[in-house]
Design a protein that fits this description.
With 320 residues, this protein is of the alpha+beta class. It folds into two domains: 127 residues, Sandwich (Jelly Rolls); 112 residues, Homeodomain-like (Arc Repressor Mutant, subunit A), CATH 1.10.10.60. The chain contains eleven helices and nine strands. Strands 1, 2, 3, 4, 5, 6, 7, 8 and 9 form a nine-stranded antiparallel sheet that branches. A hairpin with a 5-residue loop joins strand 1 and strand 2. Helix 6 packs across helix 8, helix 7 packs across helix 8 and helix 9 packs antiparallel against helix 10. The termini are far apart.
Length: 320
């Protein structure tokens, strides 16, 4: 007798689903991955268990599934990276097999995909394509060329290790502070970190040649506009692309301006301003306010990291 279990947290960020009914699984997976999907399997041996921790712009999934699935993803479907922990995943259209420890990339192509999942237990990371496109761009005011991945496998073992290190860091941070999974100052940087690591892990066409204005536009005036924007918006989820747009230069130019004139980077300067705001709030805090609350308010998922940065900047622990 097919059975189904489906639980969803009140905040809609944590989902657990399990079933032995292929029809229920098809409906659930089609909705969860925003893809039209069919499932072929032996009804007596079918099982699906899926969990998801969703932050909106990215998600962290685990999957236990045995079936042949065919799906057609839409343009807004997340870019997915699957890591196989047990079993086998086969891309039937490309005749590519992913075994234990392998990473596989799955991107919208406009056409159908056929995949066989044999006793598959895997973990998946999904990233919104808009985030990846933003991170891949250099000039905020110019149309970005289409991003195309030239391989569904990582470039090399070092790229695999870097990807796993970043995913473990993000996963541990989110699980250790689940109440902050919707906090924009945490979610935005995590999503962009995953996107940037994705672009260095899987070969793609996003690399652009440096332009002369990346160098000539790295002026004091551009820096001043960037600093003013950061100081006025440090409490918002702003990216280096936003900073470059406010400075009216390219991403490379604003990065060069900070290095040339301040010896730092735009994101490091943003962290410095947020740390200073946290310092002021700690000084002004009344009874019942914790260091962890203020750390998270200013983009620190790990209170220990906040404490270390605070001690370096102010020579004492934040609790004091």
């Amino acid at each position: 007798m097919p059975s189904t279990m489906h639980s969803q947290a009140n905040d809609r960020n944590r989902i657990e689903f399990a079933t032995t009914d292929p029809d229920r699984a098809r409906a659930y997976l089609s909705a969860a991955f925003d893809s039209a999907m069919t499932i072929r399997c032996h009804p007596d041996a079918y099982r699906l268990r899926h969990t998801r921790l969703s932050a909106g712009s990215f998600c962290l999934d685990s999957l236990d599934h045995q079936a042949v699935i065919e799906y057609r993803s839409g343009p807004d479907t997340p870019i997915m990276v699957t890591r196989v922990h047990r079993g086998m995943r086969t891309d039937l259209d490309r005749d590519v097999r992913y075994g234990i420890g392998d990473l596989g990339l799955h991107v919208h192509t406009g056409g159908p995909h056929r995949v066989r999942q044999e006793a598959l237990v895997g973990s998946l990371v999904g990233i919104a394509p808009q985030v990846v496109a933003e991170v891949a761009g250099n000039d905020p005011e110019r149309p970005r060329p289409p991003l195309r991945f030239t391989s569904a496998r990582p470039a090399g073992p070092a790229d695999v290790r870097r990807w796993l290190h970043v995913v473990d860091y993000v996963t541990d941070s989110v699980r250790n502070a689940p109440e902050f999974i919707t906090h924009p100052l945490l979610v935005g940087p995590f999503a962009r970190l995953l996107a940037a690591t994705l672009l260095t892990t899987f070969p793609n066409t996003c690399a652009t040649e440096p332009q002369h204005y990346d160098r000539t536009d790295a002026t004091v005036a551009a820096l001043s506009r960037a600093v003013g924007f950061i100081e006025a918006n440090a409490d918002l989820d702003i990216s280096v692309v936003d900073i470059a747009r406010a400075a009216r230069v390219t991403v490379r130019a604003v990065q060069r301006a900070f290095r040339r004139h301040l010896g730092t980077t735009p994101t490091a300067y943003l962290r410095r301003i947020r740390l200073a705001r946290g310092h002021q709030q700690l000084r002004d805090a009344g009874p019942g306010v914790t260091v962890q609350e203020i750390a998270a308010r200013w983009g620190y998922a790990d209170p220990a990291r906040f404490a270390a940065d605070y001690r370096r900047a102010y020579g004492q622990p934040p609790g004091r």
